[in-house]
Amino acid sequence: MDLRLADAAARAAAFPADVPRIVIATPEQAGLLAALGNDRTLVAASTDAAAIGPLVARALPHAVRKRTSVVTLTSARGGTGRTLCAANLARRLAADRTVVALDATGTGALGWWLGVDARPWSELESLAGELRPEHVELVATTVAPRLSLVGGAPVPPSADVLAMTIAAARELGDLVLVDLPLLPDERARVATARSDRVLVLAYADAASRAALASADVPAAAWVIGSQGRVDDAFRVLPHDEEAVASALGRRGAIGGALGRAYDELAELLAIDAT
Fold first, then answer.
1. Model's pTM, two decimal places?
2. What is the pLDDT of residues 105-129, one digit of tens each?
3. Fewer Cβ atoms within 10 Å of its own Cβ: the N or the C terminal residue of the chain?
């Protein structure tokens, strides 16, 4: 309901109280709603799809969400091969669906593995209050016919811009794949909360197990053991230096045993996304 219209509240009152409300409100009206403390009322600043879409997703019962459309990859510590995994999953998943990859690390590493130089996040930061799908499409870098990349070096996006970019990217592709910083980072927390499927990569050494145990890992996350099995691992990526070395030279998709593991993981995500 648009509270800026005179009779909107009266018309909305006709619906049962347990029906979630999505309200378009002025800043003054939004402040009043916040003061009332009704957490069932979701407030947007405009009628733009980028503003309302995420609120609709939050309002829907979980069972209504029939397929995965946002996949995020993170870890409890660095060096787990997360970006390498993200690049290879993006290439494989784009074989038969449109994939929008987001590099939220600010390192440009995902673009390096995909063979492109992505435009910096600063081009979207100025649009924080009104970021729309067409803005994201404009700054996206084409990697392949069904694969594009958003986000490059030298700095990561703000948490707000990342959240809005994820929401906008949902409108542009069949699947959004996000390479995130470590779990404790605010951007990781914001993005995993907006994700349909979270992959957490981890090593099996004692320090990595301790970091994973102390991290706030989402309850339904797929824990992926990197080069060795970890507790509660959903899948394990094998140690395959030869395949990685070959891929480094051409910045291409990885083959060998590691490539077959990526194939299997991509197939599971494809099932999850249909």
1. 0.75
2. 999 999 999 999 999 999 999 887 7
3. C
